[in-house]
């Protein structure tokens, strides 16, 4: 896994990441999930190329290990990708979340959020 992907081990870690970055993309995943394993390298590569220090972070949450986070965001299918701005869930490209291993939709959403984060970083 890329060191650019934050592995979340508790709700506190997730809350801290949401508080410390303007934008966050979260991959809600499970170790037993085949499609999750398929999309994981895609997510890691997107993190390597699109993370913006202090402005856009990409994170993974294992729904079995951090059940409280999965319950908080009502995760019922894996993988589910959610995007946050200033700690609040936001829709990207008209989707409140991306369910399933859809590399095209995930790539488009990450690229859009990364561009917004880069613009904000340039203004800082």
Automatic annotation (TrEMBL):
Keywords for the protein's UniProt record, in alphabetical order: Disulfide bond
Recorded hits in InterPro entries, A to Z, give: Thioredoxin-like_sf, Thioredoxin_domain
User: Sorted alphabetically, which Gene3D superfamilies does this protein's record hold?
Assistant: Glutaredoxin (3.40.30.10)
Recorded hits in Pfam families, A to Z, give: Thioredoxin
Entries under PROSITE patterns matching the protein? THIOREDOXIN_2 (PS51352)
Cite the Thioredoxin domain residue spans from the record.
Answer: 1-115
Tell me which family the UniProt entry assigns to this protein: Belongs to the thioredoxin family.
UniProt name for this protein: Thioredoxin-like protein
UniProt organism field: Emericellopsis cladophorae
């Amino acid at each position: 896994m890329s060191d650019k992907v934050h592995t979340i081990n508790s709700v506190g870690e997730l809350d801290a990441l949401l508080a410390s970055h303007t934008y966050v993309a979260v991959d809600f995943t499970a170790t037993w999930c085949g499609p999750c394993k398929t999309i994981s390298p895609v997510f890691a590569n997107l993190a390597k190329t699109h993370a913006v220090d202090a402005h856009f972070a990409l994170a993974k949450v294992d729904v079995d290990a951090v059940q409280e986070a999965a319950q908080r965001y009502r995760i019922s299918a894996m993988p589910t990708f959610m995007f946050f701005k200033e700690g609040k869930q936001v829709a990207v490209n008209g989707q409140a979340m991306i369910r399933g291993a859809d590399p095209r939709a995930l790539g488009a959403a990450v690229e859009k959020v990364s561009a917004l984060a880069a613009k904000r970083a340039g203004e800082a």
